[in-house]
Design brief:
- With about 400 residues, the chain is mainly beta.
- It is built from 4 helices and 24 strands.
- The strands form 6 sheets. Strands 8, 13, 14, 17, 20, 21 and 23 form a 7-stranded antiparallel β-sheet that branches.
- Helix 3 runs antiparallel to helix 4.
- The longest helix has 13 residues, at about 350-365.
- The relative contact order is 0.15.
């Protein structure tokens, strides 16, 4: 379907089919037969979302297409939207807990998919319109998330012990036997992941500005429950937030946002498996989105983190010990870039940063590991020099 759209003013325009029931693509052209300005496929699940810079009074052509299908769709065009910078955070994944292409039907594959309890989400786009796609845009907050879409790799942060969830009903098989319970996979040296799961973000260089938000996607099995997310910053301060998820089965509403959390709501309901490690389609599972912002942390009395660099996120302390907790994705919206050349954080990049780095480097303190690779060596020295001469 083609639409003619004339911009009423100059600014950023948003085109979306996110509320459609079919798989779509969207593209925008400068004129009939003119150059393509922007296009998108799967910007929000299997639907489409894009923005482009429009000139007031100019007419554009918008094309909406079904991907191998026909059916009902809804297209919306919104003018003068606020542009945001959404940066995906690479969490310290510890579990292959979602079903990707080729991972269903092989419960004993030594490197394959394993459920955190009796089910798991489907990521493969070939399964249907309700799958959890690689790129998701929240219809509530507009935050964009990147969900791991590659088969055979770790894709969630799991809190819990698969061998004890659901009252020990899904303990890994000792030997391969082809039933719905798999053997303990080679990527999981220890089934017990109840200890705090920490992602080091020092090298990401994310600084909280006045308008920064952190979005998290998660779900909880076997009745739902609470867990903690602790944000740690470069000056030694931290903020601990409580997050709440309902039971992941079907359409359920999470509890209200806790102190310091800006919002907490269901992201949506997506296709899931009907068995344990077999990975066959047959259930619907909800996913929760929680948003933490500089403003909500301050309003909650947890501190003013404006200008501070986020160094780690820690997930811990689940309330329901028979449930598996899965953190699926994280995104920082409108974060600011850290000035890594300002080693001592005094607001200036100068010779004092050089001397302070040398002191840390030769004293072998943790700060001397400038590139956060776990070693203090010549590479840290060269990386620091590059940051120092780059400035801010």
């Amino acid at each position: 379907m083609w639409y003619a759209y004339t911009a009423t003013s100059t600014g950023t325009v948003q085109v979306s089919t996110c509320e459609s029931s079919i798989d779509t693509t969207v593209s925008v052209y400068a004129s009939c037969g003119g150059a393509e300005i922007a296009c998108n496929d799967n910007g929000c699940g299997l639907q489409s979302f894009l923005t482009f810079n429009a000139t007031g009074g100019q007419s554009y052509r918008v094309r909406v297409a079904g991907v191998g299908t026909t059916g009902n769709f809804r297209v919306s065009i919104v003018e003068n939207v606020t542009a945001h910078d959404d940066a995906s955070i690479a969490l310290n994944w510890n579990f292959n807990g979602m079903v990707h292409d080729g991972e269903s039907g092989v419960p004993d594959a030594p490197n394959g998919y394993r459920a955190v309890s009796d089910r798991g989400l489907l990521v493969s786009a070939s399964v249907g319109d309700s799958v959890l796609a690689g790129t998701l845009r929240s219809e509530t907050t507009g935050i964009v998330y990147e969900v791991v879409g590659e088969a055979g790799v770790l894709d969630i942060v799991h809190i819990g012990d698969r061998n004890t969830v659901d009252n020990f009903n899904h303990t890994f098989d000792e030997f391969e036997n082809g039933d719905e319970i798999g053997i303990q996979p080679t990527w999981l040296p220890n089934s017990d992941q109840t200890a705090p799961q920490i992602t080091d973000l020092t090298s990401a260089g994310v600084v909280f500005g006045a308008d920064t938000k952190l979005g998290l996607l998660f779900q909880v099995s076997n009745g739902g429950g609470f867990f903690l997310a602790t944000l740690r910053f470069d000056d030694g301060t931290s903020a601990q937030l409580g997050l709440d998820g309902p039971d992941w089965f079907f359409d359920q509403v999470p509890g209200p946002a806790a102190n310091g959390v800006e919002s907490q709501a269901q992201l949506g309901v997506y296709a899931g498996t009907q068995d344990v490690d077999f990975g066959n389609n047959g259930a619907s599972l909800n996913v929760v989105e929680a948003v933490i912002s500089t403003a909500s942390l301050f309003a909650g009395g947890l501190g003013d983190f404006t200008g501070k660099q986020l160094t780690s996120i820690e997930f811990s302390d689940r309330s329901n010990t028979v449930a598996g907790y899965a953190v699926i994705a994280a995104t920082v919206r409108d974060g600011e870039a850290a000035c890594r050349g300002d080693f001592n954080g005094d607001g200036f990049v100068n010779s004092q940063d050089f001397f302070d780095f040398l002191n840390a480097f030769f004293a072998l303190t943790p700060e001397g590991d400038f590139n956060d690779d776990g070693f203090i060596n010549s590479q840290d020295f060269f990386d620091f020099l590059a940051a120092l001469f780059t400035g801010c």
